[in-house]
Amino acid sequence: MDTITAIVLGIVEGITEFIPVSSTGHMILTSKLLGYNDQDPTMKTFEVVIQLGAILAIALVYWRRILDLLGIKKIDSGQNRIAPHKKLNLLHVIIGIAPALIVAFFARDFIKSLFSASTVIWALVAGGIFMIFAEWFNKSKAKITAETIDDLSYKQAFLIGIYQILSVLWPGFSRSGSTISGGMLSGASYKASADFSFLIAIPIMVAASGYEMLDSYQNLTKDTLGLFAIGFILAFVVAYVVVLAFMKLIQKIRLTHFAIYRFILAIVFWLFIMR
Questions:
Q1: What H or E segment, with its residue span, contains residue 260?
Q2: pLDDT above 60: residue 152
Q3: Which end of the chain is more exposed for a tag (fewer CB within 10 A), N or C?
């Protein structure tokens, strides 16, 4: 690894981690383009470290909500005073992350065997089709019962957790893509689905990254520390900006736009990598 690689991968991680385009897919494909083996132990440790940078960014964006869930600082809103029984709580989060964590724990080796450029390309296409369907269903067929994250029911949180399994079992499908789409299919608005997707990303990514770090911490040496720090900082800064921009422009950027991007990306990488 060199500085340029650390910069490129840090930026790619920050841009793609929380939008529905698959950060895993982008990391695998970008590594291929840069001529690196993404299964190399040092590279895998680097990916874990920069993912932690992205997690820190999302935690900073949602820090008030996190403190509220932990009972440390209450979020006071007009809606919550009127209907406190609708307010999001820690149980919603637990229900939302449990299915994916259970599957990931028991199928870890199988999931790792699926990490390849060809798998990701097909996942980009399948995930894009799924997102288009979810957006169409949400607009024309679904009865919206959760306009905001505080309106989500336990059933909707659980369904989102079930849909999240798609991204666990199919690298490149996109965790945010599956959860946002799953939320929209279960009757949540686009914004409520995105908010919940970003929020549950924190514990599930901390658990996954922490588990992986236990296997690869020995690659954190004084020779690699500088490059890892560059990637971590860039992933943090870029992810923070991207999430804020996404939530600000959420009414203008639809899932279909991301789906089209995924189709184009799949074609480009098939032409340059698979042929």
A1: helix 255-269
A2: yes
A3: C
Phi and psi angles of residue 146, each rounded to the nearest 5 degrees, phi first: -135, 95
Spatial contact of 54 and 17, defined as CB atoms under 8 Å apart:
yes
What is the C-alpha separation between 192 and 194, in angstroms, rounded? 6
What span, in angstroms and rounded, lies between the C-alpha atoms of 138 and 9?
34
Distance CA(201)–CA(239), nearest Å, equals: 13
As given in the structure block, the two tokens for residue 173 are 């499908």
What pLDDT, on a 0 to 100 scale, did the predictor assign at position 224?
Answer: 81
Does residue 78 surpass a pLDDT of 80?
A: no
pTM of the model: 0.89
What is the distance between the alpha carbons of residues 120 and 172, in angstroms, rounded to a whole number?
4
- Please tell me the distance from the alpha carbon of residue 152 to that of residue 106, in angstroms, as a whole number: 28
| Alpha-carbon span 64 to 72, nearest angstrom | 9
> Would you state the structure tokens that stand for residue 138, as one six-digit string?
């949400």
Q: What is the pLDDT of residue 39?
A: 67
* Tokens 């529905």 found at: 20
